[in-house]
Amino acid sequence: MSVSLLDLLSGGLLQWGWGAMLLYLLAATQLTIFAVTLYLHRSQAHRGVDFHPAIAHVFRFWTWLTTSMITREWVAIHRKHHAKCETEDDPHSPMHKGIGNVFWRGVELYREARAQRADIEQYGKGTPNDWIERHLYTPHANMGPTVLLLVSIALFGFKGVAVWAIQMAWIPFWAAGVVNGLGHWWGYRNFETTDTATNLTPWGVWIGGEELHNNHHAFPSSAKFALRRWEFDIGWAVIKGLETLRLARVLRVAPSLDVRPNIHAPDTDTLKALLAHRFQAMTDYQRNVLGPALREEAQAAGAKLRALLPRKLRRGLVDDGRWLAPDARAQLQAWIAQRPRIRTLVEYRARLAALLEARTHNAGEALQHLQAWCREAEASGIRALQDYAARLKGYSLQSARA
């Protein structure tokens, strides 16, 4: 049956209804999400997984076609985000640029970051530099979306313009806005990292697993983002499927933590496990030492915990008020100074954090400092701190479970 010019203009070559076009749109945008999270993020930026060259090129082509993003620039900007996280040099930190700016102006912030060519040179090493990258994908990045627009109009008619516009807005909204913005502003945290990264939901499906942003910041090079039994990462499911077909090779996943019983003093296994799981160690300290101490203070004062210390200040207690406003930080410090037991626990936590974050001393010195910290903690007379030190000594790494 022939198709008239009016039919071509209204419905394109395919003459699909809105239902079929919606299914296409969902599939196309999910492929775009996978191209970003699996290829640009987990493979290129963090080297957590390698893909078969054919699969990698499909991802690279689709990224060029649907986003106009250049692999080297995206990787460099993301690596800088991790290197300078929550500082003034972070390309998209809500703490410094404001949640409104990051959420709604994420694309503009990305453009500002890509203009910093020295950063692209410094952080963009190791990305593709083959013939097609040099002659098509990089110099003609904007050609991809233009080609997609023409194809969309040919297939769907003028309705294809709406389909194309949604595809163009998909990554700027969900990645640049939601992940970079809300992923550092709202959600739950499995790990007390040194930034504000959060998990938006425990089920990473709609944004390819990027919803598990706090997990990613705790273990950046891990190809798997779901780290709790009740969490799900659809990106990891795709990786495992491709691995079964020998189209992907997992290079790194977060190591599993084991706790050995009856260890009398920290050893090299303890130190290795602590350095790999330093955020888990600080999370355990908050939940098993500081948390119970706060509840005991409230009970002794005959008050509810929120009356003893407002929720915002309790959150600030986790990191010495790093993200609090100056007046709130001063209020927290004054509150701690009036409570000797809490002050002692905060000091022990700060010493442990400094030990785990230090990069200046060698392993032998670090182990000596850790052993001294455990001895003093066990001699502190504070039961929760003693129990924590006893458990800490038994830390060790075990083979990661996929």
Layout of helices and strands, plus pairs?
Layout: H1 5-11, H2 18-45, E1 49-51, H3 53-67, H4 71-83, H5 94-97, H6 99-104, H7 106-114, H8 117-123, H9 131-137, H10 143-156, H11 159-181, E2 203-204, H12 213-218, E3 232-233, H13 234-244, E4 248-250, E5 256-259, H14 268-276, H15 278-301, H16 305-308, H17 311-317, H18 326-337, H19 340-357, H20 363-378, H21 383-393, E6 395-398
- Poorly predicted spans: none
Proportion in β-strands: under 5%
> What structural class is derived from the secondary structure elements?
mainly alpha
Radius of gyration: 25 Å
Largest β sheet strand count, sense and barrel closure = 2 strands, antiparallel
Roughly how many Å apart are the termini? Answer: 53 Å
**Shape from CA axes?**
elongated
Give helix % range.
55-70%
Give an account of the 3D structure.
This protein has 402 residues and is mainly alpha-helical. The chain has 2 domains: 246 residues, no CATH class; 141 residues, no CATH class. 62% of the residues lie in helices and 4% in strands. The chain has 21 helices and 6 strands. The strands form 3 sheets. A two-stranded antiparallel ribbon has the order 1-4. Helix 12 links the parallel strand 2 and strand 3. The longest helix has 28 residues. The model has no long low-confidence stretch (mean pLDDT 93).
Short overview:
This protein has 402 residues and is mostly helical.
